[in-house]
Amino acid sequence: MHYFVTxxxxxxGRFLISNLLKRKGSVVHALVRKDSQKKxxxxxxxxxxxxxxxxxxxxxxxxxxxxxxxxxARALAAKKIAHFFHLAAIYDLTASAESQRAANIxxxxxxxxxxxxxxxxxxHHTSSIAAAGLYPGVFREDMFEEAEGLDDPYLRTKHxxxxxxxxxxxxxxxxxxxGMVVGHSQTGEMDKIDGPYYFFxxxxxxxxxxxxxxxxLGIEGGRINVVPVDFVxxxxxHIAHKPKLDGHxxxxxxxxxxxxxxxxxxxxxxxxAPEMTMRIDARMFAFVPGGVxxxxxxxxxxxxxxxxxxxxxxxxKEVVKFITYxxxxxxxxxxxxxKGSGITVxxxxxxxxxxxxYWERHLDPDLFVDRTLKxxxxxxxxxxxxxxxxxxxxxxxxxxxxxxITVIVARGExxxxxxxxxxxxxGGKVFAYTADxxxxxxxxxxxxxxxxxxxxxxxxxxxxxxxxRRSIELSYDRFHDFERTMQLNYxxxxxxxxxxxxxxxxxxxxxxxxxxxxxVLANSPRFSAYVASKAALDAFSRCAQGELSGKGISFTxxxxxxxxxxxxxxxxxxxxxxxxxxxxAADMLxxxxxEKPSRIATRLGIFAALINAVAPKAYEVVMSTAFELFPDSxxxxxxxxxxxxxxxxxxxxxxxxxxxxxxx
Length: 664
Hints:
Blueprint: E1 2-6, H1 11-20, E2 27-32, H2 37-47, E3 54-58, H3 70-78, E4 81-86, H4 97-117, E5 122-126, E6 137-139, H5 153-166, E7 173-178, E8 180-182, H6 200-209, E9 216-220, E10 223-224, E11 226-228, H7 229-240, E12 249-252, E13 258-259, H8 260-270, E14 276-281, H9 290-297, H10 300-313, H11 317-320, E15 327-329, H12 332-338, H13 348-363, H14 373-377, E16 381-385, H15 390-401, E17 405-410, H16 413-425, E18 429-434, H17 440-454, E19 459-462, H18 479-507, E20 510-517, H19 518-522, H20 528-548, E21 553-560, H21 582-595, E22 599-601, H22 603-614, H23 616-629, H24 634-637, H25 650-658
Parallel strand pairs: 1-2, 1-4, 2-3, 4-5, 5-7, 6-15, 7-12, 8-11, 9-14, 16-17, 16-19, 17-18, 19-20, 20-21, 21-22
Antiparallel strand pairs: 10-13
Helix pairs in contact: 1-7, 4-5, 8-13, 15-21, 17-18, 18-20, 22-23
């Protein structure tokens, strides 16, 4: 028996061809565009098709008679094509209206003409439940004209293309309306992200943020009809070969569809993400007048916020309307046709884990994101203050090795130029500029020189800083401590940001990374001058994000834990407590450059801030205990002779180990 298939390289088509080949003596003629021949050959090898039984026919769905020449048509007609399967179409809500009309409507018209020219026995049209539009209620298999809500191009073109088949008098036909097709129930295989897959990124992010046992609030909606690809092709294959069913339509759907919230929870279990224990039915908002909903939805802040969420979770806005999908599908004709075949819709719970596993291994968008440092900074101008030693030097070495145009800034010329020369000797494009960032005139001169020689800055890392560990009681006559820390840590950083920002906003891209402190989250005693200056920089970044994120500028604040650098050297107690190495700190900066998060902080820092917010008095007791346990250093007291005798106690070491990275 000879078959003709359009869309044979598509997801449904490839499995249908495999099914047809199981029939003894079957030969499949598959329409293939010339530029898709290599893809077809590769697919044939992957699927294990016999090249003598699966034959490519050169053509094009957008052309009359699908681009098949009269000579080809005569040769195919002589083969006596028993079944013509038309599967070629655009199954994509985000595709343009023009492309959908060309593929779905014009393509169906051309396929019908070709089937007639080939004198095919029956034309099998793969439609979709989308042909019903947004019909409120139960849509039967014998219903068509009753479809409602066809404003969406996808719904309209699927409806109108089916209408062409229904109006056809020249050839016998059968119509199949599959539900939302997902991957293979046995292997999980899927070719693209569609339908419920759009929500997998959201579930994965939820899994990363919360443990699986954590109850969450979610949304409920209409019933979503999900069917695996193997059920659809098995049903089509069986029904196509059953006699006396011409002129009928078949709903290849789940007779017991689940609601949106149930589907999402099923995949949450499959992906080990927390389930939505309490779900709010989205339809409850229907009581709000449509005009009011539209007015609120069109407010710029609302549109931007929703757009940001959809972009982050990679959910097309066209999908949102289907959360409250109002249609149920009666499939009694299909059940009668499949009776005794053993072909049924498997329970989603039984194979959801396979779909998730395949998505996570092959389709997750994060798999295709360039997460290398080289991909983010190659040939980009990266300015690092405090770049001659410690965190700044380790970071500069990383970005220089990754191909960045690395600009390091420090006050000490000898150490700075030595660092530059070492990196240049390893092939890095490194430039060094001396500047005193506590001096505003020096900051301005630095900005002018960098812009004059490099044109712009892509990434600015405000790493240079001053730390002072001294109790307030010892600071009564040391107001200059507060002035000095604020001058360098806050004003110096702001001066550079304001200097480089105009070119960033003009180019609509730029990234500011501010090195803050875990002390801002933990409110460390004895660091009032230092923490206050870093907290000011934190506050500036939060305000700037709201103003500049829409102009392509990103801000990242790193609440850095205690790092073994020259800055903490005067406090000899830190020699005996756990600290990060400069390389470990540089890892945090690399993560900031690659991912551009708003904030990077350790779990301990976040936990400290949370406890302080929830139980401030209890947290005050902890901080007061720490204050008493860790006295002022000899350096803070001005006792230079006692520096060598300063040794931490066992209690201090134990406490510092428990609160690793916090300044005491």
